[in-house]
Amino acid sequence: SENTLCPSPGAMSPALAKEIPQEQGEGGSRRSGWGLLVTAGVGGTLVALYAVATPFVTPALRKVCLPFVPATAAQIQNVLKMLENRSGSLVDIGSGDGRIVIAAAKKGFQAVGYELNPWLVWYSRYRAWRDGVHQNTKFYISDLWKVSFSHYRNVVVFGVPQMMPQLEKKLEGELECNARIIACRFPFPCWIPDHTTGEGIDTVWAYDLKHSRRCETKSLEMTPETDS
């Protein structure tokens, strides 16, 4: 007879039914295992990148939000120009990755950097060693508001507008009259710069503290009165 039974579309032989689930199970297990490995690898990479990158982009100072922005080559050259014919110790406030400190050390300064971000400080020390100026440089992990800068003759500041008024008062109260303060990116609000160079974000302002009214007043107070 030609009336044979044809299996319905959803039907299959018992043997085939046994083989297919087994193959699907093994393939699914392999795919699941590879998926876990890939997920773990990507997750681990992201965590590692976050751990390394976060300290470089988070604020370096606690009182004022000051993210790390590397100094440009033009800024470094403008700072060095403002240091011509200067000598003595130098400090970079918020030294970042140490570019200014290292450049100043190469010009013969005993240069120091203060930076709150430990990753940047360690990286700065490595760069100073790599460039052969580690003996003329020092880097400290410290909050600038907790440090006295009274024994420095040259001060470099990479700040933001929010911190400049308070920092201006701090430096004016601590530094000697022969000090020069070099501000990058943003000027101080009250001081009148003695020298300016650069354009745009590369502008640098230099202030000689001896020209400030406070230093003139201190000099008058130190001068003994004489009878006429």
From TrEMBL:
Kinase as UniProt keyword: no
GO biological-process terms attached to the record: methylation; positive regulation of sensory perception of pain; regulation of mitochondrial ATP synthesis coupled proton transport
Membrane topology: Single-pass membrane protein
Protein name in UniProt: ATP synthase subunit C lysine N-methyltransferase
CC annotations in GO: mitochondrial membrane
Gene: Fam173b
UniProt keywords, alphabetically: Membrane, Methyltransferase, Mitochondrion, S-adenosyl-L-methionine, Transferase, Transmembrane, Transmembrane helix
MF term (GO), any: protein-lysine N-methyltransferase activity
Predominant subcellular localization, coarse grouping: mitochondrion
Family per record: Belongs to the ANT/ATPSC lysine N-methyltransferase family.
Provenance organism: Rhadina sibilatrix
Localization: Mitochondrion membrane
InterPro entries per the UniProt record, alphabetical: FAM173A/B, SAM-dependent_MTases_sf
Keyword Methyltransferase: yes
UniProt-listed Gene3D superfamilies: Vaccinia Virus protein VP39
Residues annotated as transmembrane: 34-53
